[in-house]
Amino acid sequence: MKQDSNLILRKQRRKKRGGRLKTIFIIVSVTLMTFYAYTFNKALLNESSEKSIPEISASLADAEDAIRNGVTTGITKRRDDGPSSRKTHSLPDLRKGGIVVFYHMPKTGGTTLRHLAKVNQQIEFHSNQKVSMENTKKLINQWTLSNDIIGEGQKVKFVELHYALESFVVSNDDLTKWRANAKENNIPFFVFTVLREPVEAFISFFNFFCIYLSKAKLVDCLPPHDFSKMLEISPDNPQARWLCFATTLSLQASNDKSLSNRSIDSCASGDLLGVMDSHFDWIGIKSRLRDTSAVFQTMGIALGYGHKNKVTQINSFLKSSTMTSNEIETLESLVKEDSKIYDWAESFYTLQNFGIDTKV
User: Fold this and answer.
1) How far apart are CA 178 and CA 354, in angstroms?
2) 8 Å CB contact between 90 and 190
3) What's the helix, strand, coil split of the chain in %, to 5?
């Protein structure tokens, strides 16, 4: 009986001793984890302070890719109707060169940006206006494979894609390849475009491609140049359509007139927003082009914003301010896909979201 009592007491002591050891182990573990976190963060801050902007951006991009491909595989979060952007809000450092690809959508303020880029001493301007799209693509690809374009005194290779071009959606594979090449060769790479308020863009497409170009004897767009005529020859969602098919009005679809009347449902439902989110580092808004200039300023390029496009205003141009509420509602029903991409871009691509001082 006494032996049994001693055995029970020893078991109780071991149990208490084990509990105390467990408690000590937890306390020591928490202390070590806290110390490790403090030391790691301190080292990370010290290391980051010595890194250049591209190195920090690359580190963030690598971490982001790991998260997207690992922890969140199969999970897609959305912002309202659009995708949750994968970007880290970091921007490349263009002070020693790099590549900028500008998808210049018609009637969105891109002509102003073209002029500013052309006269900028930090930029070597290129356009596909007088060069085939195939040769332009080869040129961009060559740049992404040569780190000779980076260094003290090097200018930024700025290429405007505006004229006879493959659509943004069709360029998906090329953009993916260019970005991968640039990353491998430590070449700053930046892709952007500009959008416009959808109803105003719809009207402006008609004013320019029908009225203005017909006055210039470049197209045959017969009068009357009124609201009914605009509805007759203007396809819906001109901005989404340009991104999907690189067309404007049927008058300009000289290679394939069916494109301007083709439904964009398949393109839009095929996650147009997702493709835009994957490739556009910045999407400007015409009504606030200064924000786009501020983005370039942050990347080290003093682009400016003072120039205005000098397209002659014609008295017969249609204006939203003179339209009835019913006419505006009709136009709104024709730009629903444009409104989706515009609302998404306007809410996400802001200086605040990119950590840029709004006073820049």
Assistant:
1) 23
2) no
3) 55, 10, 40
